[in-house]
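re the bet — no i am not wrong, look at it urself. input seq straight from the record:
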Amino acid sequence: MAHNRSSFQRGSVVTRKRDDGADYYLLRYRVRDPRAKSGWKEKTEVLASPTKKKALEEANRRMREINKTNRSSPRPSVTFESFAKGLWRSFVANRNYKPSTIGGYQSLIDKYVLPHLGKKIINQIRPEHITNFLEDVHATGVSNKYLLNLYTLVRLMFEVAVEYDLIEVNPVRRKLHRPSWERKEKPALTAEEIRRVLERIPERYRTLFITVALTGLRAGELLALRWQNVFADARLITITHSLWKGQLVLPKTKSSLRSIRIPALLARMLEEHRGASRWTAPGDFVFCREDGAPLNPDYLRKDVLYIAIASAGIERVSGAHGFHLFRHSAASIVHAQTRDLKMAQELLGHSRIDTTADVYTHVSEAVSEEATEALARAIIPDTVVLIVEPYHNKVN
């Protein structure tokens, strides 16, 4: 018998032997049962047909009747909130989602979905309810990209509800509800602007920010670096983890697991940084608090980076001038210096080159040394000296 949870079934016919050796035939199928946990009850009945061919014909007639009854049977009355806290969580738990993805889903559900749809009976939610929901959220001032993320999540939730036979059809319709959004080129700084920002970073944080400026690491990848990932003699760092809410997790994608060749300048800075640190064991964080705990990215962004950007006389765009600004800028500078888009893709650890092309650029086992050397030449030329004082972990 088919194992999908659709109200349409073909059933299955199985052959059994009587005591006298003669064949007889059983039809197996499901009927709706609101009392059952899954909403379905397995049924078996004996077919009166003398041959397999006749049994299959009889089964087809019976399944037309059964499917008609199943479609007309009342579905269990389950609120969207009950579904979200029950079967949906079970679905998510059985997927290989990253903690950050699960956390992002739950944040959207708690903030927007449940307040609008939570009390409604799930099989009574119609397309017009979804329209009103998305319009109400849009009226709060969220961006179209944010609204698109919400639409994608809600559509997936209702798809899961269909699979569990809580609803017949998905009320979220692409033509009616999908917000329009075009991927935009991200802002980027010139090499001279990055240099001005770095000059205004407090000295105890400067090696950290030079590292991200010359490698284009994501904030989580940067703060997850441990000394076992740094090979100064070989001028190499490896990206094996990301930091999410203080916990080490796997990076964003398989392509994010990568090795990056670093310029001699940065290798020397990291060696000096290690020599001044209290935390130098292989498993210790490269950039950490005085007690060895990982740094707080929100503090670094708001109380260090934003202040340096303002001091450098650069207008900051909300949501666009955080740590990712260095990624966007690194890709653009590498592309401008080398004209090699593939090199920029490998530096950033993108799984798709069109992501690099569409978003990050403005005009192998290890990322080419040429990429980070190009960044170093552009951002910190020989004529510029950035003084970096010893780093004693006296940071937040």
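see?? The longest helix spans residues 52-72. told u. also The two ends are 60 Å apart (CA to CA). so pay up
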